[in-house]
Amino acid sequence: MSKSIDPKKRPMPKQEPFERIKNFEEVALGYTPELAREEASRCLSCKKPLCIDGCPVGIDIPRFIQYVADGDFSGGIRKLKEKNALPAVCGRVCPQEDQCEKVCILGKKNEPVAIGRLERFLADWEAASGAIEKPDIAPPKKKRVAVVGSGPAGITVASDLALLGYEVAMFEALHEAGGVLTYGIPEFRLPKAIVKREVEYVRSLGVKLYLDFIVGKTRTVDNLLEEFDAIFIGAGAGLPWFMEIPGENLNGVYSANEYLTRCNLMKGFRFPAYNTPLKRASHVAVFGGGNVAMDSARTALRLGADEVHIVYRRSRSEMPARIEEIENAEEEGVIFDYLTLPIRLIGDEQGWLTEMECLRMELGEPDESGRRRPVPIKGSEFRMKVDAAVCAIGNSPNPLIPMTTPGLDIGKKGNIEADEATGKTSREGIWAGGDVVTGAATVISAMGAGRKAAKSIHETLCK
Questions:
Q1: Which helix (H) or strand (E) holds 451?
Q2: Average of pLDDT values for 180-195?
Q3: How many CB atoms lie within 10 A of CB 363?
Q4: pLDDT, tens digit (0-9, with 9 covering 90-100), for 33-84
Q5: What is the DSSP letter of 102?
Q6: ω into residue 33 within 30 of 0, thus cis?
């Protein structure tokens, strides 16, 4: 007789909205062991599990979930870490609803299994137990690999190759490792202690980490090739886009990169304990509809803003942000101005932002992205009071490495061109992956690219 399956996921315990907007502590509190086992018992253990194909790094999802259901949490984390070096991170920030959970068979008629929440549970259980296991490391090889960038792609390449016995050195431009995990994602969504824990795990595999090392200035890629047998470039996408509208040079206008980096990496939210001033604005507008826009808006609330608006030129259904993040922002009081386009920023005589002018939009035919194209409504201009604006509409790779690496093929948006299956670039001995190739994308997609590149580097160096 088949077991009765609960049609709904176990809810994730979290801070109440009126409490969490007063602090930068993590919003989601995680499953208890009892909740985790109950949720894991919903898995159908499919004979042909589509969820594995939906995972960019190929985690054996039904197997690790079965371990949870059985109460064997050490077996579950061991299975998980066979393919994922960052389970505590991925369990928190990856868009499972568009990947593994999207193709969960249970989700066809009911809610899918909460795969991400179970992944997070196992990672947090392991950390709390203090019994962190390391896989066996292959005998040392005589080949050396340099990894540029310590974000998700770089960490994955470094850990995979270290386990295969290579001597790996990871070079980070900033004063803390973790890339976008450290400077981009707020504390309330991804505590930095977790990022540090994951980075230390990779270092424990023998990876050497060099901070404040700007490849392209401190040393070039070609300089590193004199010392290393292979180079992987995972430098991310740190060059922000602006809307190119009048007034973007006014005081109080930020790129999301600057706004979040000041707050996350440089601890601006703890000023004056940390000497990183960040304007405490009363009326904040955030341009964009992705996760970075949600992060910026929710950060502004916690910094004491009276009113925070997400200004987005399409409707809610076209927003690329995770549904969970949109819902969290709504619960916390962020105001969503849909079908609205900023066209001008207005300042006072001292050069400080005071207002913005916008246009109302309506949706037309679908564009190349498949979303309906926003079309301006003639004569619908209006003004809003704002004293800070954050532009969160996207990023490109920093041009420093392409400019200092002759012969590296570069795409129209400044991205390094690399083979999707292997990460190989136009230069022999150089691989690339993650946001520096694709532009800003997800943590897990960058990890998937890192895994493919590590496999290709290994195959090449073994010849």
A1: helix 443-461
A2: 94
A3: 17
A4: 999 999 999 999 998 999 999 998 899 999 999 999 999 999 999 999 888 8
A5: G
A6: no
The string of DSSP codes covering 416-445 is BP--TTT-B-SSTTEEE-THHHHSS--HHH
CB 174 within 8 A of CB 427: no
**Main-chain phi, psi angles of 59, to 5 degrees:** -65, 140
pLDDT band at 1 (very low <50, low <70, confident <90, very high): very low
**Where do runs of H (alpha helix) occur along 147-214?**
152-163, 180-183, 192-204
In Å, how far are 239, 267, 326 from 182, measured between CA atoms?
A: 16, 11, 21
C-beta neighbour count of 403 within 10 angstroms = 13
DSSP code string of 166-183? -EEEEE-SSSSS-THHHH
Confidence of residue 311 (pLDDT cuts 50, 70, 90): very high
How far does the chain reach from its first CA to its final CA, in angstroms? 54
Strand partners, 134: none
Helices (H) and strands (E) in the chain, counts: 17, 16
Judge whether 242 and 253 are in contact, CB under 8 Å: no
Beta bridge partners of 342: 358
Q: Which amino acid is at 179?
A: G
- Token look-up 């090449």 returns 460
Q: Are 283 and 387 in contact (CB under 8 A)?
A: yes
Using a 10 angstrom Cβ sphere, with 0-12 exposed, 13-18 middle and 19 or more buried, the burial of residue 277 is: exposed
- CA gap 235, 147 in Å, rounded: 9
Q: Which two tokens stand for residue 418?
A: 């690399």
> What are 271-298's pLDDT values in tens digits?
777 777 777 899 999 999 999 999 999 9
The pTM score is 0.92
**Alpha carbon distances (Å) from 321 to 213, 283, 324:** 32, 22, 8
- Give residues with Cβ within 8 angstroms of 437, minimum separation 6: 415, 416, 417, 418, 423, 449
Quote the tokens at residue 445.
Answer: 């997609």
> Angle at which helices 115-129 and 61-69 pack, to 10 degrees?
60
One-letter amino acid for residue 140 of the chain:
P
Of the candidates 264, 327, 336, the residue with the CA atom closest to the CA atom of residue 299:
264
Q: Are 414 and 401 in contact (CB under 8 A)?
A: no
What is the H or E stretch that residue 240 is in? strand 239-240
Q: Distance from CA of residue 440 to its chain's centroid? A: 9
pLDDT over 90 at 3, yes or no: no
